Amino acid sequence: MSEAVVSIRNLNKKYKTGLQALKDVSLDIYRGEIFGLLGPNGAGKTTMINIVAGLTRRTSGQITVFGKDVDREYRFTRSKIGLVQQELSFDPFLSVEETLRTQGGYFGLTNTGPRIEEILKSLSLLDKKKASGRTLSGGMKRRVMIAKALVHDPEIVFLDEPTAGVDVQLRENLWTLVRRMQEMGKTIILTTHYLEEAEALANRIAIINKGSIVLVEEKEKLLADHGARLHDIYRKYVQDEVPV
Amino acid sequence: MNLIPILTIAKKEVQHIVKLPFQVLGAPVATTVLYFLVFGRAIGGRVGPIQGISYSEFIMPGLIMMNVVTGTFNGVTSSLILSKYMNTFNDLLISPMSYLEIVLGYVTGQVGRALVTAATIFLTAQLFIPFHIEHPFFILLFLMVVASCFALFGFMVAIAADNFEQLSIFPNFIIMPLSFLGGIFYSVDMLPGFARTLSHYNPLLYMISGMRYGFYGISDVTPLVAWAAVLFVFALLLTGAWRMLASGYKLKN
Fold first, then answer.
1. How many CB pairs under 8 A join A and B?
2. Given an 8 Å threshold on Cβ–Cβ distance, is B2 in contact with A108?
3. Beta partners for A27?
4. Residue A169: CB partners within 8 Å, gap ≥ 6?
5. B1 touches A at CB < 8 Å
6. ipTM of model
7. pLDDT per residue over B128-179, tens digit each?
8. Chain A nearest CA to B10, separation (Å)
9. For B42-81, how does the pLDDT look when each residue is reduced to its tens digit (9 = 90+)?
10. Which of A126, A135, B32, B191 is most exposed, with minimal Cβ within 10 Å?
11. pTM to 2 decimals?
C-alpha cells in the first residue's frame, strides 16, 4: 500500500440547521490513485471535499494532507490541493488567460505563462485564451475550472462531479484528461453520479450514504467479489435512490 | 506575509478602472463638474470667500473626499458581492492566502483606485479653480488611509449582505448624508452650537477637514486630531474585517 496523502479520521459535520452531514467518517486516500466517491444527492460528498479544501468548517475530527493538519498548516496543505467545484464559477471581467494568471497569483506564483499555455493546450482551450468567460459554452467553462485547479500544479485534485451536465464528447475528453493527470502522478478524488464513470476511471471506490461511508474497496476486488456490475452493488448499499 | 497574492487581488480590482471607465471615473467627473457649476459658480458667487479662499476652492477637497469614500465603498462592495454570487470568492478561500492577506489585497486595490479617482477629480477641478497644493505628501497619505477605511467598511458590509438591495442602504442613507454634513459645503464654525458639537461625532468631518488642510493649510479640526481620528477608525475596521473573514461569517458553513 502506498503512502496516504489525505487522511480523514472521525470526521463529523453538523450544520446549524441540525443536519448531520457527515457521521464519523474515516478514510485514507493513497498517492497516485483515482478514488471514486459515490453517493446520492445530499449524502455528504461535497461537504467532505469542501472541508478538506477549506470551504466548510468541520464539527469534529482530524484531517491531514501529507501528514499536516489542514487548519493549522493550511498554507502547505492548500498548495497541494486543486479543487474543481460542482458549480460553475468565473469572473465576467477576466479573459481565460487572465483568470488563470490571477488564480496562479493567489497561490503566490508569477511567470505562469508557459504553464498556462500547456494547460490550455491539454484542455483544447488554447484558441479561447483571450476570450471572456461570458462568451464560453458550459463545457468550456467546465474546462476552464479544471484549468484553474491545475495552475499551481497540485499533487491532489478534487473533482466534484466534473462531468455533470456535459455532452458525451466532452465527458470522454475529461476522462482522458483524468487518466493523463494520474499518469503525471497526481492523486484524483472524483465524486460522480455516473456509475459507469467510476467504473471506468476509479482504482478504489467508496460509497457514502446519509453522511456515513458504507463501503470502501478496490474496484477490481469489489467487482470480482460481488460478481456483479457496480450498478447492482450501489443499489445494495443505497436503496433509496436509483443511480444513473 | 506574501505580497504576490495581495498584489494579484489589488491588480484585479484596479483593472476595473480599465474595464468600467465610465462607471469608475466618468461618473465622478460628471458630478464634480455639476457641483462646481451649481455650487461653485451659481451659488458660490453669492457666498463669498470662506476661511480666506474662494467658495469653489473651499468645496474642492470635500468633493474629492466624497468621491473617494463613495467610490471606494461601492467598488469593494460590488466586486465582493459579485464574486460571492459567481462563486469566485471561493478561489481565495481555497488558496494558501491568510485572511489578513485577502483583506489587504482588497484594500490595496481600492487605494489604487481611489488615488486615480482623486487625481482625476483634482485635474477636472483645475477647469474651475487655480492650482494650489499646500502639503502634497499629507494629502497622499491621508487619502490612502481614508480610502483604506472605506474599503474595509465596504468589505464587511459586502460579506454580511445577502443582496444588492442591502448594499444600497449604506451609500445612500449613511455615507452620502455624513459627507454632506461633514462640511463639504460649509465650515462647521458657521453652524450653531449644538449642530457644531454634533458634527464632531461625524467621522467624515475629520476626513474632509484633513483633506482641506492638505490643499490649503486650513481646517475645521487640527491635522493631528484628523490623523488620530482616521487612524483610530482604520485600526478598528481592519481588526473588524479581518476577524469577520476569519470567523467565516456568511462565507463558510
1. 73
2. yes
3. A8
4. none
5. no
6. 0.90
7. 999 899 999 999 999 999 999 999 999 999 999 988 888 888 888 999 899 8
8. 10
9. 887 788 888 889 989 999 999 999 999 999 999 999 999 9
10. A135
11. 0.91
Nearest CA in chain A to B90: A55
Question: Hey, of B9, B11, B12, which one would you mutate to test binding to chain A, going by the most A CBs within 10 A of its CB?
Answer: B12
Residue B187 and residue B181: Cα distance in Å, rounded?
10
Residue ranges covered by each domain of chain A? 96-153
The whole-angstrom separation of Cα A231 and Cα B99 is: 44
Q: Which of B200, B198, B206 is nearest to B146 (CA)?
A: B206
**Beta strands A187-192; A34-38: pairing state:** parallel
Collapsing DSSP to helix, strand or coil, B74 comes out as helix
Cβ-contact B62, B208 below 8 angstroms: yes
Q: How far is Cα A3 from Cα A28, in angstroms, rounded to an integer? A: 9
Which residues in chain A belong to E strands, given as ranges?
A: 4-14, 20-30, 34-38, 60-65, 68-69, 81-84, 156-160, 187-192, 204-209, 212-218
- Which residues in chain B are contacts of A154 at CB distance < 8 A? none
Considering only alpha carbons, which residue of chain B is nearest residue A109?
Answer: B4
In whole angstroms, give the CA distance from residue B245 to residue B251: 8
